């Protein structure tokens, strides 16, 4: 029978636990999460186990990436279920700080981001978001000092921002993007899916189907504008309020006109009721 993971809630406890993990020069992979773990998160843990000798999972709902009108207070917190899932996966260490441990009194430093963080996608609607993400991920990298960090590709712009930051700041952390895990009907797994009513849940896979249709049209030679227009119509007619559906260069996130402009990523964000969903696929 395997041992339950060590749980650290203070920096001294984290450092002691990491010292134990790193004996015999073991490699360490970090999986940053905000909890409310689902099968998508577990896929990240399993990838981390394949890449490193030891796995650390952080569980921290980060207030600095939420705007005042967003759902920080109601964001699902399921610690007991999360800890049980991580124990079942034989995770070595859970880093579960509270807000005061991560942002002590007098905290006054932030990481500023540019490049993929100002691509006119999520940053148009959540201008505060990537600064908060970069700051907390930067702190996690400094605290854990992992060899690898595993992020899901569902938050694709975030993945590009974190990858750029890790390289620009010479962190020595190799950021690895894991494939999006989907329900059988194509809906990307997300902690926010629990907010969907049964009727909304039936409609939600429209985002994935619309992106697949856009990809099909692009491969058939349609311009990005024409293909995206078709996908946008499918989404809005299903009952979503569309924030964006965009065809972008997969590395730089720059706008593209057609398949000739390089590897393409389709990215979408839309609201159904009060729930905002994001998704993306490669073309």
Report on the architecture of this protein:
This protein is of the alpha/beta class and 283 residues long. It has helices at 11-21, 39-51, 79-88, 99-102, 122-125, 129-144, 156-168, 198-203, 206-219, 224-237, and strands at residues 6-8, 28-33, 54-59, 93-95, 148-152, 174-178, 241-249, 264-272, 275-282. The longest helix has 16 residues, at 129-144. The radius of gyration is 19 Å and the shape is globular.
Report the count of strand segments. Answer: 9
Profile the largest sheet.
6 strands, parallel
Q: Nearest-angstrom radius of gyration?
A: 19 Å
The CATH class of the largest domain, by name, is Alpha Beta
Report the helical percentage. 25-40%
Q: In what order do the strands lie side by side in the largest sheet? A: 1-4-3-2-5-6
- Which fold name is given in CATH as the topology of the largest domain? Rossmann fold
Strand content: 15-25%
Outline: globular
Q: What structural class do the secondary elements suggest?
A: alpha/beta
Question: What is the compact description of this entry?
Answer:
It catalyses: (R)-pantoate + beta-alanine + ATP = (R)-pantothenate + AMP + diphosphate + H(+). Its EC number is 6.3.2.1. The chain is of the alpha/beta class and 283 residues long.
Q: Which tags fit this structure?
A:
three-stranded antiparallel beta sheet; Rossmann fold; Pantoate_ligase; nucleotide-binding; 10 helices; single chain; EC 6.3.2.1; Cyt_trans-like; six-stranded parallel beta sheet; 283 residues; 2 domains; alpha/beta; pantoate-beta-alanine ligase activity; Pantoate--beta-alanine Ligase, Chain: A,domain 2
